[in-house]
Amino acid sequence: MSDLPEIPATGGEPAKPRSAQLLTFFLDNQEYGVDILRVQEIRGWSAPMPIPGAPPYIKGVINIRGDVVPIADLRERLSLPPMEYGATTAVVVLRVRYKNRDRIMGVVVDAMSDVTTVPGEALKAPPTFHDSGESLAKEIATLEDKMITILDVDCVFGDRAA
Amino acid sequence: MTKSLSDIQIELLGLFFEESAEGLQQLESGLLALEQSKGGGADTINDVFRAAHSIKGGAGSFGLTEISTLGHAMEGMLEDFRSHRTEPTREMLASLLEGVDWLRNALDARKAGGSLPIAGVRAFCDQLETLRGSVPGTPTAIEKVASAAPAVALRIDFLPAPRILESGNEPVRLLRELSRLGRAKIATDLSRLPGLADIDASLCYLSWHIELEGNDVSAKAVEEIFAWVDTDAVLRIEPVLAKPIGQDVAAAEVAAPALVQAHPVPDAKSQLASTDGRADTAIGSIRVGVDKIDLLMNMVGELVITQSMLGVIDDEGSLDSRRVEQLREGLGLLARNTRSLQESVMRLRSVPISVVFNRFPRLVHDLGQQLGKQVELKVNGQTTEIDKTVVEKLGDPLVHLVRNSLDHGLETPEIRRAAGKSEIGVIEISAYHHGGDVVVEVRDDGRGINRDRVIERARQLGLLGENESPPEDAIRDFIFAPGFSTATAVTDVSGRGVGMDVVRRNIRALGGDVFVETTVGKGTCISMRLPLTLAIIDGQLIRVGNHAYVVPLLSIIESVQVEPKRVSKFQGKRELYRLRDKLIPMIELGQVLGMQSWQRSEESLMMIVEADNAPIGLLVDELLAQQQVVVKSLETNYERVAGLSGATILGDGSVAFILDTTAIGRLVRGTPSGAHAA
Known about the structure:
By secondary structure, chain A is mostly beta strands. Helices cover 2% and strands 45% of the residues of chain A. Chain A has one domain (20-155): CATH 2.40.50.180.
């Protein structure tokens, strides 16, 4: 993976006027986005090899050009109602940083949406609810016609503290 | 020299550290050989001298003052040995060995970006000098004479190695530099000049004898001028006033040709030896013999040919039977190429085990003295090659085992004599290939491990109940338990009971295992079985449910059809299988691997595998092919999974997990630490 650019630093408050370019996708009719610089590729769904003893949202591992890559179901991770995988189901392969190491992982989403540039002023901190549990939301982008929840991809594995 | 270093300098410095590590090794083994007067010949002294000299020279050119000072002081003493001015005494060798430690510390400090305080170094050097001076009849160091006489005249013999010009050094420039110090009378020695037809223009055949006089002249200043060439030349500096000149010239003329001849030859040899595979122990780099690279190049060449052969088939359009045949042939070739390419790349990763073994002569020597035991160390199979990762992690366990052997295993000379053994104990470290593994053994001819004492101690520690009968393999089961030690006294060396369990853990982490063989009164042999490489294994593919898994071929003992009448229930739940005279716990792999829907079928086979030296039976649905698999770590992108040693990618692109039979055995037995299961 050495030929890939370094993962841009996350965490801390990003400088506000900076605009963000997002890859957006749908989960349960809601639009979500991830930093496009973290996306390695988008693939169709293929059945992974289940890992014994893994948490239920980890569907297993697949082979991506010789790398053994774990696949997480984002619906399950976000405690959304499950859905059968279908023709639009896609796997977004992300570069994440977890436990001090750069890793590759795939997340299963309902369907791809778009690449959107969000101006800095449209980015808001996510609200907290007492029952929201782990939201994985890093920021919320409010655009004229819609709202995009920006996910912190480094937190898909494990909990926020890790 | 605190000025910032350029990239090239940093690179050179790295090279210097690497070479110094080798030099230290050479110094150490040479000194030990001298001490045992086994290889006390001139060759050994020369080797040791050269090692000290190169370190000094290198350090000097990088401005690492404390290292060059140390090197210089040691070199001085060694020079006395070399010129037979003194014969090495035990005391001298001991302080030279101490010097090796100083050098090592100083180098380590520099590597870490600091430096040893020069005062301490000077104090030690003075000690060396005093030791040198205390021998009657020894001429004192050059500098001392030089500084004693105010107006100095020096006689300098500068005998460059023929290939000095290759390193970009220009003798004339050095001579010009020299004449700046004072009045120089330079005589050129043409005695080495061959006939015109034989001259190789790239070699230097000349040498020079210089008499230098002046107020600023000091041996040190002269040495500084020659600092850059001192590995490529013989340089002798002597005060003129000390000896009648005529005699000196004669001596020098006799000595010169011999020295010149002697120098380049062993030097070339040592260079060869270092490219021959002596690898550096640092994590980052590896030295590879040119022959290995050449082999690799050839194979890549063949691969390219095969590829173009296959490419032609692709160009020709539709596939008729002739082309299919060609294609098949090409693919066969490709398989062969891939296999040999893989083997050679593996070989690149392997380094001779001597990298680890090298440290033992010194360790055994020091420890033997400390414990008052006489030891002879035998080392076998130094050239056995083993994966670099394994080598790096083998060091500590091995040190531990050798220390144990020395401390617990070998008896004191008195006891040995009383037992009718030779007073000199023998510790033998060997490495050899055995099947797909490398076996590393530490064997001693000491007192052996007393089984009764082990059992007694196990009872004390609560590892074994009062009324429980000890297991057959009591020794093996207990000495690897955490906190276990039969040593009556805790010594500095060992006996604190932290150790054997750590040894076993480390070796197991490498995918190997440890075995003990012992006879009371005769000795103990601890052998470590290690995989040759960690990256590729021979695997048996099996099917469980709808998925394929890989079991390392080495851990499989046999596979049998399950005969229902041989199965018996144990405690209502566990099933045991009676195979010949053994009861083997049966494990439903489908359950271990978390397949809720998995059901044992009529055709299920039982694969009997090794787990902590106790066989377990894994129920599998089908045996598939045997093939080599490339081990991919699950930790790269995920995390460690209990019961799996990794994953691999099969020919169809799907992922298959590699089962860790030892871990599965432990999972099922519920003994995560691998401690004895009662």
